[in-house]
Each structure stands twice: as C-alpha cells, then as structure tokens.
C-alpha cells in the first residue's frame, strides 16, 4: 500500500473486533518502523506503553468515557514522553554523526530545553503526534485499523500506568480490526479555509 492510499483509507474507527489477533513480532515490526519518525534533535522523547493486561485495559476504559475500543482493540498504546529526555545522555542521540555535528548539536540540545518547561512539553506533544500518525499509517498498511484517543482523564491514566513524575501522557492509539464500516468522512474544511499564503 502506498502512503497516499494509507492516508486516504485511515479512519478513526469506533468499534473493534475483540477476537482479532496481532502477533508479538508484528507489534515489534510496527513499533520499530514507527520509531523512525522524526524528533527534534533526535531526542526520541516518546515512550510507548503497550497495555496488554485486560484488567488494566478495563480500568483505563472506565476513565476513558467508557469507550469500547479501549478494551476491544487488539492493541492499546499509551503514547507518553519523557520531559527530560534531552538531558539523559544526549551524546547518544548523535553517536556516529560527523564530529562537527556532534560538537554543534549536543550543546544546542541543552540550550534549547534547559529551564524551559513549556518547550519540553511542546516537544513531547510534537513527537508523540508524529509517532502516532506513523503507527496509524503502518497499521493501515497491514490492513488493520486504528483510532487516536484523547477522550480520557489524563491524570487517572497516568496513575494507572505508574507514569514517572518527569513524563507526560500525550494520547492513546487503539489498533486492531474494525467491527463495522466507518461512516463517510464528515465536515472536512476546504483547503481555502485552511491554507494561508505567506502570512495571516
Ligand atoms: C488527538 C486525537 C484525539 C482523538 N480522540 C478520540 C477519542 O477519544 N475517541 C474517538 O472516538 N475518536 C477520537 N479521535 C478521532 C477524531 O474524532 C477523528 O480523527 C476525526 O473526527 C476525523 O475523522 P477521521 O480520522 O476518521 O478522518 C481523536 C483524534 C485525534 C487526532
């Protein structure tokens, strides 16, 4: 499947087939590929919680507007980010790069994020957003379906997954096989309303 088809066919599916299975190897393949998505300074601040435990899924569902997909989708990923990834051995993010780049970028990482909580948080959301789209398109390529989810209590989900203090939850992604056809896309804005040439 080419990228255009994956983008056109991907929908935020509502109902998933609870009997559908995906192998561990397929999950690994999908995540390893999705992790090739870009992050600023290559800090790879995303952290992926693969929620396998059905009881934990049920508890998450209870704080996620009781959305069926939380328990019924084959996979549920809670996409989180480490707000301090920039400070954790940043040299490893550029290991193997030409020395000139290492000398320039490693100090630049520090200068960009240190003492800037808003920038750290914004980066968390950017990275997880890009990762999320890759996961959904890779799922589509496999003939699977997906749904991004932010209809949940973030603090409650954080507690349920033992989120470390210096991490944030960005969104969840359900992946599996849809249990019903999605209705046609609705309410899409025209390009003219969205596109701004040069400046607002
Ligand atoms: C960050 C994000 C959070 C979303 N949260 C939910 C959700 O909690 N439940 C749900 O059913 N759909 C959720 N959606 C799906 C959107 O409603 C859907 O993407 C939008 O209506 C466009 O439909 P389409 O993706 O099928 O084209 C979410 C989408 C995004 C990007």
Description:
With 200 residues, the protein is of the alpha+beta class. 42% of the residues lie in helices and 14% in strands. It has a single domain (3-194), classed as NADH Oxidase (3-Layer(aba) Sandwich). It is built from eight helices and four strands; from the N terminus they run H-H-E-H-H-E-H-H-E-H-E-H. A four-stranded antiparallel beta sheet has the order 1-2-4-3, sandwiched between helices. It is globular, with a radius of gyration of 19 Å. The two termini are 37 Å apart. The model has no long low-confidence stretch (mean pLDDT 97). The protein binds flavin mononucleotide. Flavin mononucleotide binds at residues 11-12, 14, 67, 147-151, 171, 185. It comes from Geotalea uraniireducens. Belongs to the nitroreductase family. Pfam families: Nitroreductase.
């Amino acid at each position: 499947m080419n990228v255009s088809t994956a983008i056109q066919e991907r929908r935020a599916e509502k109902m998933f087939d609870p009997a559908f299975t995906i192998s561990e190897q397929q999950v690994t393949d999908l995540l390893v590929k999705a992790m090739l998505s870009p992050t600023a300074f290559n800090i790879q601040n995303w952290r992926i919680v693969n929620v396998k435990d059905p009881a934990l899924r049920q508890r998450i569902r209870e704080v996620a507007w009781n959305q069926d997909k939380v328990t019924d989708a084959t996979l549920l990923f809670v996409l989180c980010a480490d707000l301090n990834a920039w400070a954790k051995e940043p040299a490893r993010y550029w290991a193997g790069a030409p020395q000139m780049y290492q000398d320039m970028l490693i100090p630049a990482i520090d200068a960009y994020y240190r003492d800037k909580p808003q920038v750290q948080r914004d980066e968390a959301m950017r990275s997880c957003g890009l990762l999320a789209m890759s996961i959904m398109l890779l799922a589509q390529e496999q003939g699977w379906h997906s749904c991004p989810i932010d209809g949940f209590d973030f603090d409650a989900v954080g507690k349920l997954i033992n989120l470390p203090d210096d991490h944030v939850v960005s969104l969840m992604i359900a992946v599996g096989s849809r249990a019903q056809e999605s209705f046609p896309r609705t309410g899409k804005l025209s390009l003219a309303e969205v596109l701004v040439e040069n400046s607002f």
